[in-house]
Amino acid sequence: MVESSEFSFLAVKYNVQGVPHTVINEEHSIVGAHPEMDFAHEILKAIGK
Amino acid sequence: MGMLKEKDREKLINLFKEIKEDVKIAMFTQEMECLHCEMTRMMIEEVSGLSDKLSLEVHDFVAEADLARKYGVDKIPAIVLSGDRDYGIRFYGVPAGYEFNVLIEDIMDVGKRDSGLGKDVMAELAKVDQPVHIQVLISST
Fold first, then answer.
1. For the complex shown, is ipTM > 0.85?
2. pTM for this structure?
3. Which CATH fold would you assign to the domain B6-125?
4. Which residue of B has its CA nearest to A46?
């Protein structure tokens, strides 16, 4: 978990507009809260599965 | 000086009674503490004192750079939660507001050795066969 106002360079780097903003492997972004299964699927998608 | 209100301390003491296993907390700060590092350290020292299942080690990000590197800690303040092993749980920044609740929830999950995830989600995650870096950016304001 990263507090974005303390580490605003990350908020800029990942173009964070709203929180929570989840970044997987520095590339895949998911904005907002989602069911756990959705996050599991995004993780698998991010690693090409 | 307490960071926590008395009734919050009592609530946490009661909640932490449900912790079954040891939770190791490591915090990275530095000797010339920035305000947030000092606040985080004071808070986590107070929280970890509320249960004998919680242990805290405070490390210096600069003087113990090798250890920070080993944990993959690249910014401070940083809190690392471990149990039987390192689960990759890292908190960066002051755990204030909502983030404080999440920290407590994570301490409970580690202390119960139970992520609370459903079997179906665990089955999906079992397909993960490489390291995955997940950053959740939040705002405590």
1. yes
2. 0.94
3. Glutaredoxin (3.40.30)
4. B132
